[in-house]
Structure formats: structure tokens, C-alpha cells
Design goal:
- Keywords: Amino-acid biosynthesis, Cysteine biosynthesis, Pyridoxal phosphate, Transferase.
- This is Cysteine synthase.
- Pathway: Amino-acid biosynthesis; L-cysteine biosynthesis; L-cysteine from L-serine: step 2/2.
- The protein has 292 residues and is an alpha/beta fold.
- 39% of the residues lie in helices and 18% in strands.
- It has 9 helices and 10 strands.
- The strands form 2 sheets. The chain has a 6-stranded mixed beta sheet. A 4-stranded parallel beta sheet has the order 5-4-3-6, with helices on both faces.
- The protein is globular.
- It starts with 13 loop residues before the first strand and ends in a 14-residue tail after the last strand.
- The mean pLDDT is 95.
């Protein structure tokens, strides 16, 4: 075998809920994106954004990349940029877990922490692009983000459910995962329902956002989401713990949020096949109070 680390991105496992789902007429499947080499679903988008930009000539080895991120995209970009020999600065909210900061640094990225959250990080990165000649891939407005999931996540789910999927559930952050997967699945079967998970007002769930209008990702198309469920930080935390304890699925808080929504959905359906994204691994939250 001559595969590289990049060849290990995607084709993640789809596993059936054996404890949490109690509706015998509904199959609930979790797609384990933490099995990607960088530990999250964002490996797909990072690879597609960097590879496509290189192929188009938008960036080269001399480019200085910068990106605002709440964590997982930054880790993925740090890994992929390192593989391609590119320089990258990653800007994160200052409350980011130390595991995230250290992982990005390990892959060779420069990490800048910003006191004004992800919105402040985005403004800082935009300023560096405008005034200092940096290049931003801009996951929030980059079609190569959602196209990564159109090329890989959607087809894998369709294949691994033998086309029987009825509902797809995903947390909504940059919205790349839900946009690309929705586009593909709707092409296969327009009746597949796409369900987004958003935080309730006042809830802070890393990786899930209810964006102010001026920061709404440009790649987001509301027509591609059939329903949006709101989930509280408390619900997401409890579910992340239950996923680990009862299903053996060690994940972060946003995955707990998506699973909360998936189980809510399972309880109201007469029958169906639900796929819920588990977007990363729990080990990058151990310094937080998530599993305290």
C-alpha cells in the first residue's frame, strides 16, 4: 500500500445507535467524522479548499494564508497547509481549549487568540488581508467548503445506507457540511429531509452558531434546509456525555447538539433512517468542563 495521510480523509464509519434511540421503527446512524486524520469533519473542507486554490493558482508556496476559526477547521487547515508546505496563521477566540491551540501549533501553524470571539477573529483576519497582503480561504464564503461534502460526505452516506436515508441531521456552524450533503442527497432523492441544529438564544455551543445577519455565512442557502431545531448548551453537554457513556462515541459538544436533535426527531417519526454527523472527537475538549 502506498496511501498517504490525505488518502485517509473521508470514508468514515456509519454506526447504529444501540442505546439512545428507543424507537424500534427508526434506525439512527452516527457518522464518525472524528476518524478523519485531523480528528474532525473539517479535514474534508480544508483539503478541498487548499487543493482547489492551488490548482487554480489562487495561492502558491509564497502565499501567507490566514483564517479565522473556532477550532476544528483550524486544525484541519494547519495539517493540510503543512503537508503542502504552506504558511498559515490561524485566529481563534481566546477561550479556545489548549488542546486545539497546541494541535495547530504542532502542525506548524501560527496561532493568534482574539478577545472578541469568532466575530472579532473574522474581522482581524479580514484586516490582515486588506492591509498586509495575507490570503484568506474564507470557509464562510468559499464554495470549495460545501463542495467537499457534495463530493464525499453525501455520496458516502447514500452509499452506506443503500439509498434508504430519510433524514440527515447536522450542526450548523460555517454550514458547509449541511449545504454540500443536502445538495447531493436531494439530487438522489428530493424527499430526504435535511435538519439543522442551532443553539437556543444565549446558549454557547462550540461549533454551532446562530449567526448575526451580517456574519451569516455566504455559502448558506436556507432552501437547502427543511427544518431547524434549537438545542440548549445544557442539552448538548448532557448528550455528549451520554454518547460517550452509553454508545461509546467520544465526541464534542456540537455533536451532542446534533444527536439531541436526531433523537428528538426519532421520537416523533413513525419510521425512517436518520444519519447524524458526529463532527469530531472528545479528546480536544478534555481541558474544558464538558466532561467534568
Amino acid at each position: 500500500m502506498n496511501s498517504t495521510i490525505i488518502d485517509q480523509i473521508g470514508n468514515t464509519p456509519l454506526v447504529r445507535s444501540t442505546k439512545l434511540n428507543t424507537n424500534p421503527n427508526v434506525t439512527l446512524l452516527f457518522k464518525l467524522e472524528g476518524n478523519n486524520p485531523g480528528g474532525s469533519v473539517k479535514d474534508r473542507a480544508a483539503y478541498n479548499m487548499i487543493k482547489s486554490a492551488l490548482e487554480r493558482g489562487d495561492i502558491d508556496k509564497e502565499s501567507r494564508l490566514i483564517e479565522a476559526t473556532s477550532g476544528n477547521t483550524g486544525i484541519a487547515l494547519a495539517m493540510i497547509a503543512g503537508i503542502f508546505g504552506l504558511s498559515i496563521e490561524l485566529v481563534m477566540p481566546e477561550n479556545a481549549t489548549k488542546e486545539r491551540v497546541q494541535t495547530m501549533s504542532a502542525f506548524g501553524a501560527k496561532v493568534t487568540l482574539h478577545p472578541e470571539g469568532i466575530e472579532g477573529a473574522r474581522d482581524y483576519a479580514e484586516e490582515k488581508v486588506t492591509n498586509e497582503g495575507f490570503v484568506m480561504l474564507n470557509q464562510f464564503a468559499n464554495d470549495d467548503n460545501w463542495k467537499a461534502h457534495y463530493k464525499s460526505t453525501g455520496p458516502e452516506i447514500w452509499r452506506d445506507t443503500n439509498g434508504t436515508i430519510t433524514h440527515f441531521v447536522s450542526a450548523m456552524g460555517t454550514t458547509g457540511t449541511i449545504m454540500g450533503t443536502s445538495t447531493f442527497l436531494k439530487e438522489q432523492n428530493k424527499d430526504v429531509q435535511i435538519i439543522g441544529a442551532q443553539p437556543t438564544d444565549g446558549s454557547k455551543i462550540p461549533g454551532i452558531r446562530k449567526w448575526p445577519k451580517e456574519y451569516l455565512p455566504k455559502i448558506f442557502d436556507s432552501n437547502k434546509v427543511d427544518r431547524i431545531f434549537e438545542v440548549s448548551a445544557e442539552e448538548a453537554t448532557i448528550m455528549a456525555k451520554r454518547l460517550a457513556k452509553e454508545e461509546g462515541i467520544f465526541s464534542g459538544m456540537s455533536s451532542g447538539g446534533a444527536a439531541t436533535v436526531a433523537l428528538r426527531l426519532a421520537s416523533e417519526l413513525e419510521s425512517g433512517v436518520i444519519v447524524s454527523i458526529v463532527c469530531d472527537r472528545g479528546d480536544r475538549y478534555l481541558s474544558s468542563d464538558l466532561f467534568a
